[in-house]
Write a structure and sequence with these properties.
The complex is a heterodimer of chains A (282) and B (209).
Chain A: E1 2-5, H1 6-22, H2 26-36, H3 42-61, E2 71-79, E3 82-85, H4 89-103, E4 127-133, E5 137-145, H5 147-150, E6 154-158, H6 163-178, E7 186-194, H7 196-206, H8 218-232, E8 247-257, E9 262-269, E10 276-281
Parallel strand pairs in A: 1-3, 2-4, 7-8
Antiparallel strand pairs in A: 2-5, 5-10, 6-9, 7-9
Helix pairs in contact in A: 1-4, 2-3, 6-8
Chain B: H1 3-6, H2 28-32, E1 35-39, E2 55-64, H3 67-79, E3 91-93, H4 121-126, E4 131-134, H5 140-149, E5 152-155, H6 161-165, E6 168-175, E7 184-198
Parallel strand pairs in B: 1-2, 2-3, 3-4, 4-5
Antiparallel strand pairs in B: 2-7, 5-7, 6-7
The chains are: A alpha/beta (282), B alpha/beta (209).
Chain lengths: 282, 209
């Protein structure tokens, strides 16, 4: 049985908050660099070059890539043979967010109540999903999620008859309707199956996977590739100025679903899609 | 009409026409040769020379304001109260920056999505606002108001907040400090890069011919 102290969790979460927000993940950075060479629309190429330069500045000077340092989203895998001591795991994660957002000069973007809208001034609470899994590890996945793109996300309860073609139509429609607003080139996390809520969580989880890694299921991987091509033919382009680079990646996660349903959630994310993982315990 | 009645949020409407053709904007010349603009402008008629797709380098003074600050500004306008900032010929930047780390004037500061300000913007444009800086589409109401009052809408690159922060020379909190990042700040900028997204005639970079 592995033992993890909550102070260790807080320390790691604090570190992840700062690093994820200042250092663009290699998969996304490389995709931006690759895209520069493919654009012959000068406005599109100019934007992409600015984005690469922006990521370089952020990394070198340790300042946030984007001022929207997001709402802190965590997927935590708790090994059933891992014992957490010293206090509440949820409190420890929130304390890490509090410390990280202060120490990293990150933006406080969370309001305490969606209707009254007073800023909590420490970017807590985080959104945390827990999974209990076999083993001794405590694995923490972190993704600060910006809301320019979050606001353009959609969910639809398709019918089994809609099938793969219905999914394609819906996903393309989401990107077209979002247009320039979610800061294209975008990255899409798509959840297919489960229940309404399960599809939405899967869509968020899909954004944690590097965009250069396809779904292990060949037919799902093929759908990811087909969707990417369809979206990049829309001519939305970087910042909506037109061009071939509307999306950098499409990640799909699936789950068994009901005989009557085909839930599809599209979580839109921007070109500053940040994701990090840390492993504690066993 | 009050802004409550006119608010429709960011309508999810197709902004890209079915046709794959795009208008000839952002051509190599206008991208490579930005015009320099000093803000606030002395006369709004200067703005009429800006054409959609043209790169611009802004220098001078701009004010940050986003959702919560706009709400307060429009409430003040409707109540007939004095405003905390001038609007005539001025430029508002839709942005909520990161805090300034030691040794810097401001943290990361890219544009936020402009359509969330659409229900408020016409009230400010009527008061003489010269321009807005943000990202993404605008409503027909905003564009109509821009045409009527000779106002321009510029897009800065969303997500390039680190780069843009280096073009801010000074920053000063001027109003609504309780709003945190959403407070109004007076920024002095030097060569702040943007592109004309909607010009004073209503031509939009987001509309495809």
């Amino acid at each position: 049985m592995a033992i993890v102290h909550v102070d260790e969790v807080t320390r790691e979460v604090k570190r992840m908050c700062i690093e994820a927000n200042t250092n663009l993940p290699a998969d996304v950075y490389q995709a931006l660099v690759n895209a520069v060479g493919t654009e012959d629309n000068p406005a599109a190429a100019a934007v992409l070059k600015q984005l690469v330069e922006n990521a370089d500045i952020a990394r070198k000077e340790c300042i946030p890539i984007c001022q929207d340092t997001g709402m802190a989203v965590f997927f935590v895998e708790v090994g059933q043979d891992c014992r957490i001591v010293g206090g509440s795991l949820t409190d420890a994660i929130n304390e890490g967010v509090r410390q990280g957002y202060r120490a990293g000069y990150l933006r406080m973007s969370v309001v305490a109540d969606p209707l009254e809208r007073t800023n909590t001034n420490d970017n807590t609470p985080a959104v945390i999903y827990y999974d209990v899994v076999p083993g001794e590890d405590l694995v923490i996945h972190f993704s600060p999620k910006g809301f320019g793109s979050e606001n353009m996300s959609q969910l639809r309860m398709l019918t089994p008859a809609d099938g793969v073609e219905g999914i394609k139509r819906f996903v393309v429609q989401v990107v077209r309707e979002g247009g320039p607003n979610p800061c294209p080139p975008v990255i899409l996390g798509i959840g297919i199956g489960g229940t309404m809520d399960k599809a939405a969580v899967l869509a968020k989880k899909a954004l944690l996977r590097p965009i250069d890694r396809r779904n292990p299921n060949p037919s799902v991987a093929r759908l990811e590739e087909e969707l990417l091509e369809l979206i990049n033919n829309l001519n939305v382009g970087p910042q909506g100025f037109g061009g071939k680079t509307t999306a950098l990646g499409v990640n799909i996660e699936t789950y068994p679903t009901h005989i009557a349903g085909l839930p599809v959630a599209v979580n839109v994310s921007c070109h500053v899609t940040r994701h990090m993982t840390t492993r504690l315990g066993g | 009409m009050t802004f409550h009645q006119s608010r429709r949020g960011c309508a999810k409407k197709p902004v890209v026409a079915a046709a794959q053709e795009r208008m000839d904007v952002g051509d190599a010349y206008s991208m490579a040769c930005p015009v320099r603009l000093t803000v606030p402008v002395a006369d709004k008629r200067e703005l009429a020379s800006l054409v959609v797709g043209q790169s611009v380098l802004l220098s001078g003074v701009i004010y940050t304001a986003r959702d919560a600050a706009h709400r307060r500004l429009v409430e003040a306008i409707l109540a007939g109260d004095e405003l905390p900032i001038p609007l005539q010929n001025e430029f508002i930047y839709y942005a909520g920056p990161c805090p300034a780390p030691p040794g810097r004037v401001i943290g990361s500061i890219g544009p936020t999505t402009s359509c969330r300000m659409d229900s408020y913007a016409p009230f400010l444009i009527e008061k003489g606002l010269g321009g807005m800086i943000g990202k993404g589409t605008r409503s027909k109401q905003v564009i109509d108001s821009m045409i009527k009052h000779c106002c321009v809408y510029l897009a800065a690159v969303g997500g390039a907040g680190a780069l843009l922060s280096r073009r801010v020379v000074s920053a000063e909190l001027v109003a609504y400090g309780d709003l945190g990042t959403e407070a109004i700040r007076r920024l002095e900028v030097k060569d702040f890069p943007a592109i004309v997204a909607i010009d004073t005639r209503g031509n939009s970079i987001y509309e495809r011919r």
